[in-house]
Amino acid sequence: MKKILYSLAAVLLLVVALAFTKISTMPDGFTTGSPEIKSISSLAFGPDGILFIGDSRNASVVALNTKDVSKAQVKAVDLKNVDQKIAATLGTTSENIVITDMAVNPISGKIYFSVQTTAGDPALLTVDGDKIEAVPLKDVSYSSIVLNSAPSEDKKDRRGQPLRLSSISDLTYSDGKVMVSGLSNEEFSSSFRTIPFPFGNKQDQSSLEIYHAAHGKYETTSPIKTFTTAEIKGKKYLIASYTCTPLVLFPLDELKPGMHVKGRTVAEMGSGNQPLDMITMSKNGKSYLVMANNNRPVFRVNFKNIEDFQGSLTTPVAENFATEGVPFVSMPLTNVLQLDKLDDSRMVMLQRRADGSLDLWSSDKQEWLLQ
Amino acid sequence: MIRLRFIRNLIFFAALLSNCTSHKDDRVALVWLDNEAVGLSVPLSLISSVTEAEVFNVRVKGQQVMMLGDIDREAHQLIFRPLIPLTRGLSYEVVVNEKVVAEVSVPMAEGTSDLDLLIYPSQDTVPENLLKVYLRFSRPMEQGRALTYITLLNEQKDTVRGTFLDLKPELWNDRRDMLTVWLDPGRIKRGLHPNHDLGQPLVRGRQYSLIVSRYWKDINGLPLGKDFVKSFLVAGRDSLSPVPSAWKIEPPKSNTTDNLCVRFHEPVDYSLLNGTLHVYSSKVNSRDLIRGVWTFSEEETVACFKPQSEWKAGAYMLEIETRLEDLSGNNLSRPFERDMTVAERDVRVSPGSVALPFQPIPSSRADRAGRIPDE
Fold it and tell me: What ipTM was estimated for this complex?
């Protein structure tokens, strides 16, 4: 009898253990359903195949459990006229869509695209080889957080209300936190939020005003266009590029809610130019910041040079269209509209070619780009 | 085929089934919702077997690529819903077993264009460091290629390039009928490369024309139909924050719903005006928000508030959020750029809000007597 009881208890324990194992695979705060997504302006991958979707119109970030976690041999990509192919799968033509962002799932190597029609309808797709598929958004596991919750009267910090966000300019995930930079369609100001992930019931979000000094004389505020994080000499930094082109470093541990943080301008990336995307690549023991621009080639900055550059740009501008500060290399890649890391050694990019075609390709045969 | 459908479609699913216009005959019909063709209704009579229903596809005419979408089976038809609404002016083919069994075209939007556009700031003189232009349309517009429809001409009618910031995503309001366009801040900010290399986007003393193209379409595909032109002269730089204590308040009379007006003595940001001004009754330990409607006039230099209820005798205050900016991005608590070599001015407004007290003017009995017949 005792034996039977022991056996039953063992089975019960096993069932309970299995049940808890199952529960623990569901990330905190996730629910099954169909997230209401009005727009997709930014994408970024987090851990375990979680895709963060920046929805500007809803002023929210949706964390989608893609369940795309099968490790695969990441294939080379070379897809011509990808905008036309995407448009055709959506049932329209390329002039009616805009590819708003691209993100590579670091586990599967699958490339995710967000698309917005000119009428404002969003779509989320994957490209795997030459196959374009829709990412399911119905009956999926997801979690979301609203960025724009209106603060109550008594919650104003000393710098006033958080910026009213109208557009998410960039989004990234690092060390358990989702970071979001925003633009307002009213105030010309900088909004940067750090949100712990998994999203909790309590919103521990920061609203930061970031200023940067221009040549040591004028202190101005400006919205961040794109950013990434990196470790420099053992310290974590936010590397942000502004709408007015400077490249600015902020120690991550100094970004606190409501704080006025002054960044260190380490480079200016040239006139008439807009930074589009930034990634970190490593090769042969060297780490690079690789940056796509709308009116300049892709830049490559050696992190060693950022480490060595201890100053801030305080000297007058020397010559027209010159750039200064940390030295960087212009790569022979122009009109790169989207850029991401395909794997440790390869980049994938969406490039407008000279003949007008918009091509998606990976840097498989161009290893010299990072040498 | 991966089948995906957005929640919006789910929400309206029931409405769709009851409202959709579909033919009872054996033709393929468009399924409409909110003036958009959201799907295709394909009669089962076009498809001879269940197996064929599983290889039923839709594509844009002339394309080989099949569209992504959902297929729902109903009593006599299959409903194909693409990921995004069908595009006006395009034709679609229904393909079964690699054969085109039907073709349907989505008509262009009907009607004439009555689109209207207001361009802010409405003054015909702007500072050389003008930061933003707002385009307020009468209907939601197509987005994503705004700068291809906006041109700046100089006095010689030459196009001035590189003036506006090509932002992606574009800064539309939620209703998608107002676009914010920034003049390149790198060129406005002194000391930065773009400012040094290319100079200010607008040159003092020069005349410009901002042209919004007639070809810009609303979300239904109807174009503006005519060019909208705003001509303006460029004045000097404005580097100073607006000073609320210098504004003139024109108090209303008590026991009336007359307007409270405030004169800024300079134009302020059109969009920020909507939402940064609040009126409170001022009591010793509390305050109550007064409900009413704000209107803005005289080229965004005057704001007037009409309350829902009559003003009472006593203390009120006009609260202004310090994020209110002038045309050059100087808000009430910080200028667009601060010259760190110059000492700050003595009176600096803390970020948050500024309160300007006022009291309604007591109404005399005679005033009230004169007002009664009008009530």
Answer: 0.81
